[in-house]
Amino acid sequence: MKAAVCTRYGPPEVLQVRDVDDPVAGRNDVVIRIHAAAVTASDVYIRSGIPSARLVMRLMHRLAMGFTKPRRPIPGAVLAGEIGATGRNVTRFCAGDRVWAFTLMRCGCYAQRIALPATTKLLAPAPRNLTHDEAAAIPYGALLALYFLRRAGIQRGERVLVYGASGAIGTSAVQIAKHFGGTVTGVCSTANVERVRDLGAEEILDYTRQDTPPGPGYDVVLDAVGRRKTSPLKEALRNALTPGGRFVSVDDTLPRVKRDDLEYLRELAEAGTLKPVIDRRYALEQIAEAHRYVEQGHKQGNVLITLAD
Fold it and tell me: Domain 2-137+276-306 falls in which CATH fold?
């Protein structure tokens, strides 16, 4: 089968499309035919080896992922596809079932097929009303958005601001915050204003034109981009909270996500409450170009790799 292999840490060109062995299902495994995979900021982080980070951060990265190159050579952590084969002990899935998954540190999604234990925590039936591409555009951003909004203790009727409202996490956060009953303000650049408004944000702030938040304070501020980007407006938002308001950032902690969260997102997607946002699609052979685009930090929603046998 074809797969993108990370040959070493470095620029996007270190990703090479190669022929690799087909995975085989063990007695407790499923083999998934991958139709679409997401290219995320985390994938870019892993591939680059974070050369600009402090030495201690680079060492921690290498200890976790591998010293000269990722010890799991096929990157990618989000997929949508269908079950191609099952091990003899598997009862949870059948061949032909449509699934989506977030493989976390196991990676392996930039490939035509992957073998996973059927008990994998974040492997579940995909939303019935979405295509494979649309399904692959939800788990990464929505799982993180859901975790951090819950961490903030969002309540119905609160004023919620999402900084970075046009990215993978931000586009999901706007929709989920609306579902929780929040009045949502989205922060994005001029080019993304209409996109964020269409997702349900009542108010839009353009960080390229505004450096102070208007009006009364916010009950919850979610920084959906972390330390990668900042602006005078972002710094001012820390002082724009109501008494008892909560500021949470995707850099605060490693999120703890579980299968129930993925099932909950499937329900939201099937109800039309959570809609996928897709910026660009690339073929597997364009994986370096896809990484280069994501690395620029200006994507709207999600970037996908489409795969086929």
Answer: Quinone Oxidoreductase; Chain A, domain 1 (3.90.180)
